[in-house]
Automatic annotation (TrEMBL):
Compartments where found: Mitochondrion inner membrane
Membrane spanning stretches: 59-84
Cellular component GO terms held in the UniProt record: mitochondrial inner membrane
Main location per the UniProt record: mitochondrion
Protein name: EF-hand domain-containing protein
InterPro entries for this protein: EF-hand-dom_pair, EF_Hand_1_Ca_BS, EF_hand_dom, FAD/NAD-bd_sf, FAD/NAD-binding_dom, NDH-2, NDH2-like_C
Family: Belongs to the NADH dehydrogenase family.
Keywords of this entry: Calcium, FAD, Flavoprotein, Membrane, NAD, Oxidoreductase, Transit peptide, Transmembrane, Transmembrane helix
Amino acid sequence: MLSSTSRLSLGSSTSRSLLRPTHSPSAAAGAAGKAAKPRWFGRKPHPPGWKPLYRRRPVLFASIALPFVVTSSLGLCLLGLLGYDASTYADKHLDKVAVNPLALLPTRGGKKNLKVAEALVDDEDEGRRISSKKQRLVVVGGGWGSVGMLKHLDPDLWHVTLIAPENYFLFHPLLPSATVGTVEVRSLVEPLRKIIARVSGHYLQAKAVDVDFSERLLEVQAAGEENFYVPYDRLVIACGSVNSTHGVPGLENCHQLKTVQDAQGIRRRVMDNLEKACLPGTEEAERKRLLSFVVCGGGPTGVEFASELFDMVNEDVLDYMPKILRDQISVHIIQSRDHILNTYAETISNYAEERFRRNEIDTILNARVKEVTPDSVIYTTKAPDGSLVEHTVESGFTLWSTGIAMNPFTQRVASLLPNQYHKHALEVDSHLRVIGAPLGTVYAIGDCATIETRLVDHLLEMVDVCDENKDGQIDKDEFEKMMKIVYRKFPTAQKHAEKIRDVFDKYARADHTLGLNELATMFVDISKKMTNLPATAQVANQQGVYLGKKFSKVGGVGHEAAVTNEVHDDPDDMLYAPFKYKHMGSLAYIGNSAVFDIDNYSFAGGLVAMYLWRGVYWSEQVSTRTRVLLMLDWIKRGIFGRDLSKF
């Protein structure tokens, strides 16, 4: 061991000199005439004034370091992706999967003695086992309303079964873009089984055809199979609508745009017409007919399709196909009103019409389609003297997108119920319950439903509740109580009769009371000002979200109370507030530009507005998968253009 003296000597100046370079002349002389070499543990010292490379040559340093950093990052990302991809491959084997015997051999019942699906084949799967306390919630349709509801539904309270003929959710607002290849159809769909899995629910690829309200059985039809019943505790009808024909003959010669198959068919037909017009044997008159595209309807769907078609012709067809196509192509929009996009602000309609004029898109206003033939569209307009004038426009392609009507199932439901007067949808109350059906058991949302606006139908009911002294007259205090009930049953009536005292004074008699006649007149006047909600994805989604939250809150409480009191049609008026629609604005694409109509503010612009329009629709996608695919489609279109192939 070293002594204390030795340990101290290690800390002397001599020992410390071993740890740092020596520059003194005495040290150099003590090195036997050899030049003194500073020692930094093998490293040479920097000369005076030395600076690192990133300070002497920042550009050179960046040119060396940046590619290294980028390639390293990309390499790490690639390795991570490859590792994740490798982890997704699995080889699973399942033996002796449990299946409820009733799912394999269902019993028969109901008025038609059909099989009753009391159990489904995946009821015993892990995470889906039925609890005896769960109520059966059956949803018809896989659109915006259904998806909005499933996102907010409590899976612990409900045994959910979704029934739809197509096993995917379709993002309809971007369907016009898919008709010309701006985006791919695959980017607009999300499998319903992925969505229903969030609530541990079940999916049946079938369509509803009938319903038995007394026994709560929904009749379902699957392709190639015998019809069967699906029992329910609550039924939500969200099956959408079909295009209205308005009694126009020849609609079999038109294309529609509501489904994936419609978009694919339109894309094939458009490309087929363009390729036929390029053939050397095609006569000029036939070429002009092939290149004449007619859109019947000036709503958002018709306007956006015309805009997308014009963009494709100018940005892709002009570069790769004969220039004569651009010279002879024509697009016509036939609108029955005095403006296209007539549900938007007038400034928006004017902007769209002016842009179409610059783009040479023919806008025919105040015209009604009389007939559609295989090669033309016949329409009428009013002459100054009021007589109808008939016109004909040649057509190689016709799109029909005007109005909505009931699909066969909603027609059947309406025929089974009293007090269903609406021609285009099922009437529901402010809680979205179908009027006439057993209370609290059947709901309807989306395009297939419309909220009732006839206040006068509830007049006697309200008078009976509010006439406290039973004199047959309504005074001011009783009227205030009545209007609170009106506002709760009809939330949209509040903005048309907000000042209760002013409304009372307007209709009151000399004795400052209201009788049945005065109340009926008041209710009729208010009802005339109330408008039905538009058949849009925004309305359907909000209604679906409302039902999802409502069922999650009152499902357990309402069911337990119903069982305890032996009341099977438990009303939810007192358990949850009625539905109130909040308009978030309307938007539409108009040829490398877009328009926005938000409350009292309207905005229209070019590329900036177009990218904002894309951003809104991108954010509204139902999954990260569709967001990624949609973004890649837009990038692909910008780099490579649209795909002009036909398959």
